[in-house]
Amino acid sequence: MNESKLKKYNSIDTIVALATFPSASALGVIRISGKAAIKIASKIFKPANKKDIRKVKGNSLFYGWIVERTKAKKPKLKTGLVVDEVMLSLMRKPRSYTKEDVVEISAHGGVLVLNKILELIIEQGARQAQRGEFTYRALVNGRINLIQAEAVRDIVEARSDQGLRLAQQQLKGELSKEIDLVKQDLKELFSQVEAYINFPEDELKISTGLIKKQINQLKNKLDKLLIGSKDAKILKEGLRCIICGKTNAGKSTLFNCLLREERVIVSRIHGTTRDVIEETINIRGVPLRIYDTAGLIEPRDLVTKKAIAKTNQSFDSADLIILMLDGSRSLDKDDLFLLNKIKDKNVIIVINKRDLKQKLKAETIANFKKPKVFLSALKKKGIKDLEKAVFNSVYKNGLNRENIIFLNHYQEQFLKKAVESITEAKDCFESDDAIDLVGCSLKECLDSLAELTGEVYSEEILENIFSKFCIGK
Ligand code: GDP
After folding, report:
1. 357 CB within 6 A, ligand 1
2. Segment 234-280, tens digit of pLDDT
3. Whose CA is nearest to atom 22 of ligand 1?
């Protein structure tokens, strides 16, 4: 871990913050960390067993009172005002969250009482902690790495059981271990390749076949990590999905059917769905953020023109497009216009109104090599097939929960860079002309992974990560 520090933090002060939400609740926890943590606590806390907490070795738990000092030097029940009855946990460095001396006070959850205790601690010389400052200390003191720091935030922010479980898995450092293994292998490979470049004729020691095999293995591992991070992003943020198609194809009906409630007005008058409406539904564990859009046809009037501009915008940012065709009508130029427009996107073609006599011939859409689902949105028939197609289009090789990793935007960029570099190394090794470049690419790959785990990091990235923390973490 490099020692570059964020300007807004310093590791000299003893810091304090409320670690729980400030509201009337059963308990509120105040956390103090730093050199003077125990000394400060000893000045305001009176343990029931009358021990001097400064002399206690190891980690311990005390029952007692927070006492506001009056004239007497030491807090005594007789001479001070009892502020609250509390439990106090004392954790000596390095066996604490920050690897510093830490004291946690579990008091009653009232805002007033907690503020009073905070005030007393600050009076004794502690400073109010900034957002994420405890976790930042855990990071610079080598207790956790950047990936785990992110996981801490994800645990605090987790909105679903699934997200929480995954973040906890990440906090345990399983992902970091995996990346460390890849890094070790890369370093070894790097030295082999260097040796090969310098002494190519020394065939006895190094076989090109083996190097090639190792590059491929590492590439596979990194590819897998990248897929895992994309899967995690979907679980966390949901998948942007658009239902598009000609007016009257049945988009709103399908939308309602998926939502199972009448949110969108279904109408036989063309072009009623003018606004883009967003709803999140859960399809086999995939959070799908569905946008019902204006019937996407060629612009004919201003209102639809506006709507179409909106739709086009959403098109570009969509992860999945459900294109709806009306099976009871033959394909027309509007349908073809749409089919051609989304040729290169992740699309499921839905042929709706299968309860009516079918005029749309299968062969007319056979050229569009996309998954196709026949259904009736009105009669709610074939919806399961669509759900299956959605799941398969998202998780092409199924969803392997063990591979899932949460990365922030920066970390994902580093992983992408690492994948690019290993791919370059592979290509260069296969074309003999560029053999010198293999070493460079492997080195670049290693550097990107070092940035990913936070072995080296920039202030900008740290700022970004810790600014999203809450105070007290
Ligand atoms: P949108 O313009 O694409 O949003 O289309 P709507 O959902 O408003 O549907 C247009 C008309 O088609 C309505 O009268 C729907 O009841 C009807 N409709 C939608 N889906 C089906 C279906 O599967 N079968 C039949 N028979 N009618 C449908």
Report:
1. no
2. 777 778 888 888 888 998 888 888 876 544 444 444 444 445 556 77
3. 353
**256 Cβ below 6 A of ligand 1:** no
On whether the CB atoms of residues 456 and 450 are closer than 8 A, the answer is yes
Amino acid at 190: F
- For tokens 């606590």, what's the residue? 41
Which residue has tokens 């190394």? Answer: 425
Instruction: Assess whether the C-beta atom of 383 lies below 6 angstroms from ligand 1.
Output: no
Are 83 and 117 in contact by the 8 Å Cβ rule? The answer is: yes
Cross-sheet strand order for the sheet of 347-352: 277-283, 286-292, 239-245, 320-326, 347-352, 372-374
Residue position matching structure tokens 């005002």: 81
* pLDDT tens, position by position, 305-361: 666 676 677 678 788 899 999 999 999 888 888 888 888 888 999 999 999 999 998
| Rounded to 5°, angle at Cα 250 from 292 and 343 | 70
Among candidate residues 10, 37, 41, the one with its CA nearest the CA of residue 133? 10
449 in Cβ contact with 186 (< 8 Å): yes
| Whether the Cβ atoms of residue 270 and residue 249 lie closer than 8 Å to each other | no
Question: SS3 for 324?
Answer: strand
Kindly give the distance from the C-alpha atom of residue 248 to the centroid of ligand 1, in angstroms, as a whole number.
Answer: 6
By DSSP bridging, strand 239-245 and strand 286-292 are parallel
Residue 17 β-bridge partners: 31
454 lines ligand 1 (CB under 6 A): no
